[in-house]
């Protein structure tokens, strides 16, 4: 009969088409959307398109694979410089720079040290950079290129004192003391 032949033909048609499409309905006349919620195979907020061969995923930036489930490691093609460490992120990467380096790819080297950083002034002497030359400004009582020599001591208050440390490691030391009173008619004993 016609109805039986129609059902048989519809069944054959639905079997051949169902390889590519999902159909529903009593006579398989309704095409189901393979991208509908609950059936969408695409992951990571990618876009799903229904095609005659099945769903097709258009991946969001940073993801790859048939279903966009793989986070592409951008560090495989990174351009970090000067020994920087690449940190993979979604759709990109960042470079963690070694100390002193800067820039997006750590391409900016640290500035050269100033002459004062190399001068190593001693005894709390401040350093002044004059025409790219370091000059240690010695505090009162000190001399030398780095203010390393103690040349005089002033005892102004009763609580003043002179402390000489690590005398065992001094190869030679000459200490001369000149003493005077603060009073015009004072006597030292």
From TrEMBL:
**What keywords tag this UniProt record?**
Disulfide bond, EGF-like domain, Glycoprotein, Repeat, Secreted, Signal
Residue ranges annotated for the EGF-like domain, each copy included: 31-69, 71-107, 112-148
Q: Where in the cell is it found?
A: Secreted
Q: Does the keyword Glycoprotein apply?
A: yes
- Disulfide pairs? 59-68, 97-106, 138-147
The protein's predominant localisation is secreted
Q: Which InterPro entries match?
A: ConA-like_dom_sf, EGF, EGF-like_Ca-bd_dom, EGF-like_CS, EGF-type_Asp/Asn_hydroxyl_site, EGF_Ca-bd_CS, Growth_fac_rcpt_cys_sf, Notch/Slit_guidance
- The residues forming the signal peptide are 1-22
Q: Which GO terms describe its molecular function?
A: calcium ion binding; heparin binding; Roundabout binding
Mind telling me which GO cellular component terms the entry cites? extracellular space
Q: Which CDD domains match?
A: EGF_CA (cd00054)
Provide one Gene Ontology biological process annotation. Answer: negative chemotaxis
Xref: PANTHER family:
SLIT HOMOLOG, SLIT HOMOLOG 1 PROTEIN
This chain belongs to the protein called EGF-like domain-containing protein
Tell me which species this is from: Hucho hucho
